[in-house]
Write a structure and sequence with these properties.
4-stranded parallel β-sheet, 12 helices, 6-stranded mixed β-sheet, alpha/beta
Length: 307
């Protein structure tokens, strides 16, 4: 049965397309940009702050809004009413990542003439992401598609983990999810690092990404630094890197001395808990063990800093 689907987060939009149900989408969030054809759908959300500027400035704007207990995003309720969705997919994992579940529920209660089913995703660990894919498939009446897709994704990822598990030499890895102030990557990222054959130094699987200090990074002195800022592509991340590279003791870090600092497209890959976490794992595997893996993501998914 065809349904009218509204996706309010990029990862769920990708899930819907991965399940072969993209033709049933009637609306998206302002951040949904993959696959390319989704940008032709009406955007039902917008930010309440100016997203331009340096990472420190953006951080301060977001914190100011959250201190007032306000949502960082707004929903165009009139547009949503016009679209008349049967299913609305949102999330409750992060107040900064998308519209809040409370706002979606309130909008649905106040503005929609018929009861739309709200599917709220809360991916904290890799297992949750896979389960969410199956949840979306079930909510859309295609549970077998979800089961099949997850099985294929799991097979791809397990093949990489099986190849790295017996390695004796595994580098220590620091994943930077925000540049200024410094934040490490949590949630599913520690699991991806381990599957890719690394030893994760910051952040804990299943828990939100933690803040860290420059002294923390310097004290741990990782073998590899992977920069994957939330919402940033490679070009934007490179523009932000002077916040780190201009520090007088930047060159004292082992990863810097050994040319092991990598800048990735965090926005398209690591920060989206959906189908492309499989590609995210491939990117990490290429970075950490280039003699074992070459999936062709260099240049588009990641770059060596300075090249």
């Amino acid at each position: 049965m065809r349904q009218r689907i509204l996706s309010l987060i990029p990862s769920s939009t990708e899930i819907v397309y991965a399940l072969g149900l993209g033709d049933q989408l009637v609306g998206r969030s302002h951040e949904c940009d993959y696959p390319a054809q989704v940008v032709h759908l009406p955007a039902c959300t917008a930010t309440k702050f100016n997203p331009d500027g340096r990472s420190y400035e953006i951080d301060q704007r977001v914190k100011a809004i959250l201190q007032e207990s306000l949502s960082v995003y707004r929903i165009d309720a009139d547009l949503v009413k016009t679209l008349a969705p049967d299913v609305i997919i949102t999330q409750s994992q992060c107040e900064v990542c998308a519209v809040s579940l409370k706002d979606v529920q309130q909008m649905a209660c106040d503005w929609l003439d018929s009861a739309a089913e709200i599917v709220s995703l809360e991916p904290n660990r890799l297992e949750d992401v896979l389960a969410d894919i199956e949840r979306v498939a079930a909510a859309l009446g295609e549970p077998q598609r979800g089961t099949d897709y997850v099985a294929g994704m799991q097979t791809r990822m397990d093949a990489i983990a099986a190849k790295t598990q017996p390695l004796r030499e595994k580098p220590t890895v620091a994943c930077v999810e925000w540049i200024e102030p410094l934040m490490a990557a949590g949630n599913w990222m520690p699991q991806l690092v381990e599957m890719a054959g690394g030893l994760n130094q910051f952040g804990e699987a299943g828990k939100h990404s933690p803040w860290m200090t420059w002294d923390d990074l310097r004290a741990n002195d990782p073998d590899v630094i992977v920069v994957l800022p939330c919402g940033y592509d490679i070009a934007k991340s490179l523009r932000e890197m002077p916040a780190l590279t201009d520090r007088p003791d930047w060159t004292s870090l082992r990863a810097v001395r050994e040319n092991q600092v990598y800048v990735t497209d965090g926005n398209q890959y690591f920060n989206r808990p959906g189908p492309r976490l499989a590609e995210s794992l491939e990117i990490l595997a290429e970075i950490l063990h280039p003699t074992l893996f070459n999936f062709g993501h260099r240049g588009s998914g990641w770059r060596l800093l300075g090249e």
